[in-house]
Design brief:
Mean pLDDT: 92
Number of helices: 3
Strand content: over 45%
Number of strands: 20
Strand order of the largest sheet: 1-3-4-5-6-7-8-9-10-12-13-16-17-18-19-20
Largest sheet: 16 strands, antiparallel, barrel
Order of helices and strands: HEEEEEEHEEEEEEEEHEEEEEE
Shape: globular
CATH class: Mainly Beta
Structural class: mainly beta
CATH architecture: Beta Barrel
Distance between the termini: 47 Å
Helix content: under 10%
Number of domains: 1
Low-confidence stretches: 1-15
CATH topology: Porin
């Protein structure tokens, strides 16, 4: 009888409900940039607004309010058909876990941190209203999910009358080096009426090419900065109404012993070297969106970033605007304009740098994009 019971647990009954969904986003366009390393440029561009991807999402009903869940998601380029990563089949997400109607979910694998989950969802760059070029300088707070967390276990609560919370831990996977290239984060949100409030914290230890770096760790190959420690925290509030919404967001990123900004975050071929001191970015963002008609949506935002970088105090001002026309629920076309101006970096060789585009040779960069998106 005991063997029979064990067999029933290992092999769920044939009538258990399960489903697998194929989904994705395709985003391709044309972009003019006034300055890329000193020259204006016209180019075909992938993922101006949303990251181009395809994925599989599945669930299996295990009974008693429990279910197995998984997500496998791959990012790629429509411009050339190439993979987003040469070493990862599912570079965006790859996790499996258990979820309960009453207790929440526990998932394991490659996952988003709590700052992305709670603050990225309220930032212009983390929504379909702004996109990649709306990210804060160097994506310093990871709201555009420049990196995911490997080796991670995440708990996400159920909704308690508008309150949800989550926590994640990414293991270093190194014997004798528990803290080398590990990550942990936590966040919470609360909804009432049209208001949505959220706060989150993230910490990375030895996440880049610094002493103690571990090549099997939580953000290997993805880290935005080379530093002995990165701490990012922030809060956001949005208000939604019938045809749109407005929001305000603050984040701060602090780095200790920072030696570099990696190439994929800096827009330069080799990245930007730093002196090994402390670095700080304070980001203040105001954003909003409005549906002029059921088919036409306008959105935009302004971000001010106050920095401390190698003994200087650069300031970034950035304005982003997007107009989208929806042919259907799945397909739209868009016009996007982005402008960034930075002061206080004269003589450093660092210019304006919209995320997703090569950096400017001056303190200003303007980009205009037209494109099409399809959701499936």
């Amino acid at each position: 009888m005991g063997l029979l019971a064990a067999g029933c647990i290992i092999n769920p009954s044939a009538h258990a409900q399960s489903s697998v969904t194929l989904y994705g986003i395709l985003d391709e366009g044309l972009t003019y940039t006034n300055n890329q390393h000193g020259s204006g440029a016209w180019q075909a561009t992938n993922q101006n607004v949303d990251g181009t991807r395809w994925g599989l999402r599945g669930t299996e009903d295990l009974g008693g309010g429990w279910k197995a869940v998984f997500t496998l998601e791959n990012g790629f380029s429509l411009t050339n058909g190439g993979a987003g990563s040469s070493s990862q089949l599912f570079n965006r997400q790859a996790f499996v876990g258990l979820a309960s109607d009453g207790y929440g979910s526990v998932t394991l694998g490659r996952q988003y941190d709590s700052v992305v989950d709670y603050l990225g969802a309220l930032a212009l760059t983390g929504t379909g209203y702004g996109g990649v070029h709306s990210a804060h300088p160097f994506d310093n707070d990871n709201l555009d999910d420049s990196f995911r967390v490997n080796n991670s276990v995440k708990y996400t609560s159920v909704n308690y009358h508008g309150l949800t919370f989550s926590g994640l831990y990414g293991f270093s996977n190194q014997a004798g080096g528990f803290a080398a290239n590990r990550a942990y984060s936590g966040g919470a949100s609360y909804d009432f009426g049209g208001f949505h409030l959220a706060a989150a914290y993230l910490q990375l230890n030895n996440s880049g090419a610094t002493v103690g770096f571990n090549s099997a760790g939580s953000v290997t190959g993805d880290a935005t900065f080379n530093a002995s420690r990165q701490r990012t925290f922030g809060a956001a509030a949005t208000y939604s109404f019938d045809k749109g919404g407005v929001g305000f967001l603050f984040t701060e990123t602090r780095l200790q012993n920072a030696t570099g900004i990696n190439a994929y975050a800096s827009g330069t071929a080799s990245g930007i070297g730093l002196s090994g001191g402390d670095v700080r970015f304070d980001n203040y963002e105001l954003n909003g969106h409005y549906s002029v008609t059921p088919a036409i949506t306008l959105s935009g935002g302004y971000t001010y970033t106050d920095g401390r970088l190698d003994g200087i105090s650069p300031k970034w001002n950035q304005v982003n605007f997007l107009a989208a026309y929806a042919f259907s629920k799945r397909t739209d076309v868009y016009l996007q304009t982005d402008w960034q101006h930075v002061s206080g970096l004269s003589g450093t060789g660092i210019g304006a740098d919209l995320i997703g585009l090569p950096a400017s040779s001056t303190n200003q960069q303007v980009a205009v994009s037209v494109g099409i998106r399809h959701f499936f």
